[in-house]
Amino acid sequence: MDTAALLTSLGFTPAELTGGSLTVRSPIDGAEIARVHQTTAADMPALIARAQTAFRAWREVPAPRRGELVRLLGEELRAAKAELGALVTLEVGKITSEGLGEVQEMIDICDFAVGLSRQLYGLTIASERPGHRMMESWHPTGPCAVISAFNFPVAVWSWNAALALVCGDPVIWKPSEKTPLTAMATMKIFARALARFGDAPEGLAQLVVGGPDVGAALVASRDIPIVSATGSTRMGRAVGPKVAERFGRSILELGGNNAMIVAPSADLDMAVRAIVFSAVGTAGQRCTSLRRLIAHNSIRADLTAKLVKAYASLPVGDPRAATTLVGPLVDHAARDRMLAALEQAKAEGGTVHGGRTVTANVPQGGAYIEPAVAEMPAQTAIVREETFAPILYVLGYETLDEAIALQNDVPQGLSSCIFTLNLREAETFLSAAGSDCGIANVNIGPSGAEIGGAFGGEKETGGGRESGSDAWKSYMRRQTNTINYSAKLPLAQGVKFDF
Ligand code: NAD
Questions:
Q1: Crossing angle, helix 268-280 and helix 300-312, to 10 degrees?
Q2: Does the beta carbon of 227 sit less than 6 angstroms from any atom of ligand 1?
Q3: Is 287 designated active site?
Q4: Which letter does DSSP use for residue 281 in this model?
């Protein structure tokens, strides 16, 4: 399907795609796809007021009924999966199966949230006073802003929105300025779910289009009690303190610098497959992409040779072609940053394999590059940084303690893994003295998380948790209730106050 037909099939009108001040280009060939209209600062107060009004109505809708809206959203996403997945490929440059996989992730979180809508459980707690009962109630908190990054242009919204909506919170979404079209298409799909649902309040899910300035209005507003922000650590440093200053709640999902330890007992063939997918998938543009390989010195050379061989056979090219495994980087600036990082790696004593710009047999105008392996003498400055590109730094180790220390000795704390067949090593890695990351895996790579678990990381990754497990609690306020059904008024802790 060509671009115009794809956009029409997703319900775009020519007026939405032309005449605006934000130019949208496809990373595939740099071609302009649209000029969309941006939200202005002047629009923001009314938008936020609409979300507040929607909140007052939505918080009183029973949670299982709220779940029904999310169930319908899941149905509409299933119906539009092929087209939305293709738009993810067009706007971000992901290969076809990853574009579709991103939409599947939206469907999965909708399913999860529907079940959750009947499971927003609070505790009952034993009271020390006779004739008293204690319990916890979870209530909706208020409008939730979702600021999202370019690399998961639709899934991140759904992780937040599916949960926020069943929890009773309206959502205002500011997607990356690089990916407004996938966001607009998602809102059209959501509108279809709303129409079938019938009586949802207006303004339950809104979209604002633009750059950091538009996001700043959401960050600053006291009427937005929750700000979920996904992006670089630089962005988190700007957003986090501003939300904290007004005592808002932030859910920060920031940069990663994810590692794999490969122990002598590891199944090397399996490790190679996991390494290649997690370092090269999405052209190294996942927050959970594998960036550091910490290999035992006894297998390091062998493993590196296998990787260099595997990398040489990876098809780089048009992400829409069925055989392509490595699509373009999001833009030329991203490729320049990758090339600069490789130069710095060399200056810091590294030996680089691959990492050359690709111009043959790829669409002209896109930023295509060979994924790179960089053998490093130590965990130097560039290795400690997140470069959002397919660079895999290889380091060696002698003892597991040394490997864990290297793995943890970076500012970020998102995802990690170990390949080993040794139970003691695996359990040590997962123990309190092991990986300091929010995600720690054994015998699978660091990327490609399922929605059932809580997703997020520590340190400069920001500490937020989204998606599964009990991440829903971030979207609700907890209330502790004590109920006295006796005819007396005993005080806690034996305090006497008779008059
Ligand atoms: P980015 O930080 O450039 O932008 C992310 C979003 O924040 C965009 O919508 C942008 O407009 C907005 N923004 C930037 N500065 C802002 C400010 N001062 N106030 C309000 N909004 C602001 O990130 P990117 O290049 O789009 O995405 C790549 C980064 O995102 C990587 O660092 C990656 O690791 C991270 N990421 C993290 C996760 C996670 O779950 N931890 C997931 C995806 C991406």
A1: 50
A2: no
A3: yes
A4: G
Q: Which atom of ligand 1 is nearest to the CA of 147?
A: 9
CB 140 within 8 A of CB 476: yes
3-class DSSP state of 243: helix
CA of 197 to the centre of ligand 1 (A): 32
Per-residue pLDDT tens digits for 225-266: 999 999 999 999 999 999 999 999 999 999 999 999 999 999
The angle formed by the CA atoms of residues 296, 297 and 303, to the nearest 5 degrees, is: 75
Output the CA 478–ligand 1 centroid distance in Å: 29
pLDDT on residue 1: 82
Residue 369 phi, psi dihedral angles, 5° rounding: -155, 150
Enclosing H/E stretch for 77: helix 63-92
Which token pair is 61?
């809708």
146 Cβ below 6 A of ligand 1: no
Q: Please identify which residue in the block is written with the tokens 């597991």.
A: 400
The CB of 256 under 6 Å from ligand 1? The reply is yes
Query: Do 136 and 122 touch, CB atoms closer than 8 A?
Result: yes
Nearest CA among 82, 28, 7 for reference residue 324: 28
**Tokens encoding 205:** 């899910």
| Under-50 pLDDT residues of the chain | none
Residue nearest to atom 13 of ligand 1 (CA): 212
Give which of 173, 75, 71 is closest to 116, Cα–Cα: 71
CA distance 121 to 470: 10
- Give whole-number Cα distances, 59 to 121, 424, 450, 456, in Å: 16, 49, 29, 27
pTM, 2 dp: 0.98
Output the CA 225–ligand 1 centroid distance in Å: 20
Binding site membership of 263 for ligand 1 (Cβ less than 6 Å): no
Between CA 152 and CA 330 the distance in angstroms is 12
Residue 191 phi/psi, 5-degree rounding, is: -60, -35
Is 210 near ligand 1, meaning CB less than 6 Å away?
Answer: no
Query: Does the annotation count 417 as an active-site position?
Result: no
